C-alpha cells in the first residue's frame, strides 16, 4: 500500500539528483565488486606544429590511463512503528501518513550529496563571502567554466539557495513560472528559475550544503614543499596533497575552504592558453579542501585539495600556466569562522550518483523498488508481543567525481 505513494513522492521531490550523472555506474554494484567501482577517465594529447612534418625532435604524447572512483556511502534510512490500536482507530489513510517519509529521505540524500559536491569541485568563481545578487554573477560563472574548457555538449546547471533565487527572479521578467494543471507540480518544476542564463539552467534548492570557513587568526601560509605535479600522481583521485606551514598554530583547516595560490594561474583545458578575467588579468589558481585537517602547534600540516595543480613538460593534462612550488603563498579565502552556502555550477558529468540494490531482509515483507536508477528497499515486520507494526525504508548511495574541473 505504501510503496506507490512513497515512490511518487520520492520522485516528485528531487532536484539535485536530476542534474548529475546517474548512468555511469547504474546497476554495476554487486556482491562481487565490493564498495568501490571505477570507470576510465578520458585521455588527452598534444599537437606538434612543424614546418616539414619531421617529428624527430618532437615529444610524443603518452597514453596515461586514469580512473574515476564511485564509492559506497552510509545507509540512508527512515523508519517508523505504530500500534495496531493506532492503525485501527486513526490511520485510515496510512499511505498518506507515511508518504512524507519520502520527502525527508530525498531531502537528506540531496543535502548529503551536495555536501560531497561542495568539497569536490575544481573551480571557484567570484569573491568568497560576497552575495550573489545579480544575473551577471551567474553569467560570470558560465564564462569562467567556458574559458577553462568545460564542454558545452549538454546542459549546465546552476543551483542556488531559495533566497538567492528570489533575488535573481526579481531582476528578470522572463523567469519560469511553475507549471499549472490538475497534477501537483514536482519539485523540479517549482525549482526552475531560468532555462537559459549564462549557459545554465538555474534552479532553486533547499538542499544546498552550508560550510564553516577555517577559524584562524592568520588565513595565509606557504607551501612547505612542492606537491606531486604529474597527471600520473592525480589521475585516480583528481586530488593533491599539499604540505603547508605558517598558519595559525593548531588551526583546523575546514573541508570546503577555498585556497588560492599567489602567482599561479589557470590554463584552459581547451585552448592550453592562460585564462584571463574580464579586466584582462590572469585568473589565479584555486582549489577546495576535501576534508578537515588539524595543523600542528607550529601551524604546519598536509591538506588534500580537489582539482590538482598539474604541470608537466608534455602539457597534455596541465591545469596551471607554471608549476606550483615550495614557498608559494597559500591563502584561505573568506572570513575566519564565517558560515557560507555557496551556489553550485556544474556540467552533469562532473559528478555521479547511484544506489546499491540491497538484498531483501528475512522479514514478513521485504521489497525493492526502482525509480530512474534509484533503488530503495522497503521492509515491514511486526513485534507480536507489543502488538506493533514496523516499517523501514533504506537506500545505499554511492558517490563519484568524474571531473572536478567541470564544476
Describe the structure.
The strands form five sheets. Strands 1, 2, 3, 18, 19, 20 and 21 form a seven-stranded antiparallel beta sheet that branches. Helix 1 runs parallel beside helix 4 (100-118). Residues 179-184 have low confidence and may be disordered. By secondary structure, the chain is of the alpha+beta class. It starts with a helix and ends in a 6-residue tail after the last strand. It has helices spanning 2-12, 84-89, 94-98, 100-118, 135-147, 162-169, 187-191, 231-234, and strands spanning 36-40, 67-72, 76-83, 156-160, 192-197, 200-204, 211-212, 220-223, 239-245, 252-253, 258-265, 284-289, 293-294, 301-306, 329-332, 339-340, 344-346, 351-356, 365-371, 374-383, 388-401.
Amino acid at each position: 500500500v505504501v510503496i506507490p505513494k512513497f515512490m511518487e513522492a520520492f520522485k516528485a521531490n528531487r532536484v539535485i539528483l536530476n542534474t548529475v550523472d546517474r548512468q555511469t555506474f547504474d546497476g554495476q554494484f554487486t556482491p562481487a565488486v565490493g564498495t568501490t567501482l571505477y570507470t576510465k577517465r578520458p585521455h588527452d594529447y598534444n599537437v606538434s606544429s612543424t614546418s616539414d612534418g619531421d617529428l624527430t625532435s618532437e615529444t610524443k604524447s603518452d597514453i596515461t590511463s586514469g580512473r574515476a572512483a564511485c564509492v559506497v556511502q552510509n545507509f540512508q534510512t527512515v523508519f517508523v512503528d505504530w500500534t495496531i490500536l493506532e492503525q485501527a482507530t486513526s490511520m485510515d489513510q496510512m499511505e498518506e501518513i507515511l508518504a512524507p517519509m519520502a520527502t525527508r529521505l530525498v531531502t537528506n540524500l540531496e543535502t548529503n550529496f551536495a555536501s560531497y559536491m561542495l568539497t569536490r569541485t575544481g573551480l571557484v568563481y567570484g569573491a568568497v563571502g560576497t552575495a550573489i545578487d545579480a544575473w551577471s554573477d551567474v553569467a560570470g560563472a558560465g564564462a569562467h567554466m567556458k574559458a577553462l574548457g568545460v564542454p558545452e555538449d549538454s546542459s549546465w546547471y546552476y543551483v542556488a539557495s531559495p533566497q538567492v533565487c528570489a533575488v535573481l527572479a526579481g531582476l528578470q521578467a522572463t523567469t519560469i513560472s511553475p507549471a499549472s494543471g490538475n497534477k501537483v507540480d514536482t519539485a523540479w518544476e517549482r525549482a526552475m528559475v531560468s532555462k537559459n542564463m549564462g549557459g545554465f539552467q538555474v534552479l532553486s534548492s533547499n538542499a544546498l550544503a552550508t560550510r564553516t570557513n577555517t577559524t584562524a587568526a592568520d588565513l595565509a601560509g606557504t607551501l612547505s614543499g612542492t606537491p606531486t605535479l604529474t597527471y600520473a600522481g592525480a589521475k585516480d583521485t583528481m586530488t593533491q596533497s599539499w604540505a603547508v606551514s605558517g598558519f595559525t598554530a593548531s588551526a583546523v583547516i575546514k573541508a570546503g575552504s577555498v585556497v588560492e595560490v599567489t602567482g599561479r594561474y589557470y590554463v584552459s583545458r581547451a585552448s592550453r592558453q592562460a585564462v584571463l578575467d574580464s579586466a584582462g588579468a590572469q585568473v589565479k589558481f584555486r582549489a577546495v579542501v576535501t576534508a578537515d585537517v588539524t595543523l600542528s602547534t607550529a601551524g604546519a600540516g598536509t591538506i588534500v585539495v580537489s582539482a590538482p595543480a598539474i604541470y608537466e613538460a608534455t602539457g597534455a593534462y596541465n591545469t596551471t600556466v607554471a608549476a606550483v612550488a615550495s614557498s608559494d603563498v597559500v591563502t584561505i579565502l573568506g572570513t575566519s569562522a564565517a558560515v557560507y552556502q555557496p551556489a553550485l555550477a556544474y556540467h552533469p558529468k562532473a559528478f555521479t550518483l547511484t544506489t546499491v540494490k540491497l538484498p531483501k531482509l528475512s522479514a514478513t515483507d521485504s521489497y525493492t523498488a526502482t525509480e530512474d536508477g534509484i533503488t530503495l528497499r522497503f521492509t515491514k515486520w511486526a513485534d507480536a508481543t507489543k502488538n506493533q507494526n514496523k516499517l523501514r525504508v533504506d537506500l545505499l548511495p554511492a558517490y563519484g567525481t568524474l571531473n572536478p574541473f567541470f564544476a
